[in-house]
Amino acid sequence: MNQVAEAACIGEEHLLWGYARAGETPLRRDGFVQQHEGTQGIVHAPPLDDAMPGETRRASLLVRHYLGEDDAGVARITHSRVVRVLKPGE
Fold this sequence. Notes:
Distance between the termini: 40 Å
Low-confidence stretches: none
Number of strands: 7
Strand order of the largest sheet: 1-6-7
Largest sheet: 3 strands, antiparallel
Radius of gyration: 18 Å
Mean pLDDT: 80
Shape: elongated
Number of helices: 0
Strand content: 35-45%
Helix content: under 10%
């Protein structure tokens, strides 16, 4: 019987840059919301269909890192994946 061992992993949240500026109506299209960050001109559009991040309430990415050992037996992150986008306050 072939058994798969459960991989050791750790979860981590990464805050996304960007929010709607005060008095501005954000561009929404097909479940994505355009966001701006500061005066640097950074713009991106995460999939946030009904939630709008603010300057103090940010959306984030939930990332899972999987751990393994190298040839010397040292534990390290072998690979990572984005699990989902967390809406502000989630």
